[in-house]
Amino acid sequence: MKSESGALFTLAGFFAVTSLFAVGGGNSVIPEMHRYAVDVQHWLSDRQFADSFALAQLTPGPNLIIVTLIGYHVAGIAGAVVATLAMCGPTSVLAFIVGRASERFTGAAWHGALSRGLIPVTIGLTAASATVIASIADFSWVAVAITLATACIALFMRLHPLWSFAAAALLGLAGLV
Amino acid sequence: MSSPASPPSPSAPTAEVPAAAPQPSIAELFLAFAAISLSGFGGVLAWARRIMVERRRWFTADQFNEAFALCAFLPGGNMVNFAVIFGARIRGPLGALAALAGLLGPPMILIIAVGALYAHYGDLPALRRMLTGIAAAAAGLMLATVAKMARPLFNGSFKSSAGIAPIIAVATFAAIGILHWPLPLVLLVIVPVGIGAAFRNTGMRQ
């Protein structure tokens, strides 16, 4: 077991570096967080990671709030704050600088090519995130069915996703999952 | 994703007042982003647009789209980047900090409370079973997001897809989702390829 400050440094270093590779948003780095937190550091089990993802989805706020939860799990409130600041600090500084610079040359051609080039990467990363979450959340056929049904409802019906969560929670509570 | 019903808006400007609203103060920035953050279950972007453009009129629709497009290719959370860029344009570095604090502060407090409850009660059988169901549903929601994003890539309507864009998406997916390779290594190879292909394509069209 590492010392408390050792864990904080590890959290800070990992999330600061990972945030810079979060192409297309916080959801893109779910597989990397899972790989590192579960497989490399053994901070959480698969089950706890799946739970953290679910709880972060249920709590209002930006997607990357799962980082706060992982930090809290590793090192309490200090861990939560350190992980969140590490995840948001470096990219915020970058956004500040680029935001300032871009006021001078909006609509440049490289702008469009850059974002078009990143779109397929973002799609691949989000697909990987969905796969990783499904692989640790779905251990029964009923769970797989809930995953597919929620996806279909979100795609083809205008129903608020909270309804899917409520139905899934009830199915779970009834012991069917 | 379905957008939530219209929010109660006691201070909504009426259609007869076309003049731009005065620039928000630091405190107003903080409160606006806290409101966006806490109401943004599932679709923070829709709420941000509603509050920033329609209700408060701090941004025109064009300014909003331009700032958000910028966030799409910057690394990091989209809303985090948006808060920084927006806050900075209105009130400089302090504005960026206020917007960021509003966006992150309230959900951090909430999620720490959730984490504390989970640490105490996470092993209760009833909660355990509910979370199993919710995790499966959360995976489904992300699957739907992927399907929505990927549709234009594979049905040919994606502008720069000279055949290579779907290959890049599938290669990224395989490296990260199936082979579980480290993200930085994969991106250091695949991002230059993706951007290079998009540039080449742009050049050929012009």
Give structural notes.
By secondary structure, chain A is mainly α. Chain A has a domain of 106 residues. Chain A is 76% helix and 0% strand. The longest helix of chain A is centred in the middle third of the chain and has 37 residues. The radius of gyration of chain A is 18 Å and the shape is globular. Chain A starts with a helix and ends with a helix. The mean pLDDT of chain A is 88. Chain B has 206 residues and is mainly alpha-helical. Helix content of chain B is 73%, strand content 0%. Chain B has seven helices and no strands. Chain B is globular, with a radius of gyration of 21 Å. The N terminus of chain B is likely disordered. The chains are: A mainly alpha (177), B mainly alpha (206). At the A-B interface, helix 1, helix 2, helix 3, helix 4 and helix 5 of A face helix 1, helix 3, helix 4, helix 5 and helix 6 of B.
Describe the secondary-structure layout.
The complex is a heterodimer of chains A (177) and B (206).
Chain A lengths: L3 H16 L10 H11 L5 H13 L7 H37 L6 H29 L3 H16 L4 H13 L4
Chain B lengths: L25 H14 L4 H12 L5 H13 L4 H44 L3 H30 L9 H15 L4 H23 L1
Helix pairs in contact in B: 1-2, 1-4, 3-4, 6-7
**Helix share, percent of chain B:** over 70%
How much is the radius of gyration of chain B in Å?
21 Å
**Gap from first CA to last CA of chain A:** 35 Å
Which sequence of SSEs, written as H and E, runs from N to C of chain B? HHHHHHH
Low-confidence stretches of chain A: none
Strand content of chain B: under 5%
| Distance separating the two termini of chain B | 36 Å
Which class best fits the helix and strand makeup of chain B?
mainly alpha
